[in-house]
């Protein structure tokens, strides 16, 4: 199914040519297309490599849809890193989004080992990030990495998103960005969207990871982009963007996004 979806996406996805929305043109030419690299990326990627070499086994509590490749309770850190971390390209794109639009208050649903958290949190010194991880053992490993980035303001919460979501949101002055990368099932994704939506403002951005990961995630994505609260939605296949911008006509875009992987 993913292969067919990808072929369809590649056939339909556009680029900067023909983009009549000034905001989306800027988004594409300044954030999606460039794939820039900053000095902090080397430090983050060094941590990824350390995780990929770590044979230590930990007990994992999986509250989401799980992994397609490894759902055993006891897993090595390197196996978790191999299957659950965002790619360097995705991390760079998250960083660019935060930097370009000067978002300051970020909520991440699904910390994993913290690589995506660092990309979200290191674009500026005045960023506040609250991140939720369901597995205590994974959360501990992520916190060890966060401690090596003392200039970041990351609050790590451990437990079920169902129980922690509202209290996590209230730790931030406002909700500028939510990165949804936890439970890739339909009902939880829609539930988290609806609960976070109540705290969104005109410039809020919701980022959804793996929007074609499964039939349920695909259904959730197409349900969300139809929501009247969403002004502009962008399908990049691997990632979906939802901007709440209500001051312009509702529009949906499918744009080329090179992963270089």
Structure, described:
With 261 residues, the protein is of the alpha/beta class. The protein is built from ten helices and ten strands. The chain is globular, with a radius of gyration of 17 Å. Keywords: Methyltransferase, Transferase. InterPro entries: SAM-dependent_MTases_sf.
Average pLDDT metric = 91
- Strand arrangement in the largest pleated sheet: 5-4-3-6-7-9-8-10
Q: Tell me, briefly, the overall form.
A: globular
Order of helices and strands: HHHEEHHEHEHEHEHEHEEE
Main sheet record: 8 strands, mixed
**N-to-C terminal Cα separation, in Å?**
20 Å
Count of helical regions: 10
Structural class: alpha/beta
Please give the number of β-strands. Answer: 10
What is the percent of helical residues?
40-55%
Strand content: 15-25%
Low-confidence stretches: 65-70
Based on CA atoms alone, the radius of gyration comes out at 17 Å
How would you summarize this macromolecular structure in one to three sentences?
InterPro entries: SAM-dependent_MTases_sf. The chain has 261 residues and is an alpha/beta fold.
Task: Write out key terms for the chains shown.
261 residues; two-stranded antiparallel sheet; single chain; alpha/beta; eight-stranded mixed beta sheet; methyltransferase activity
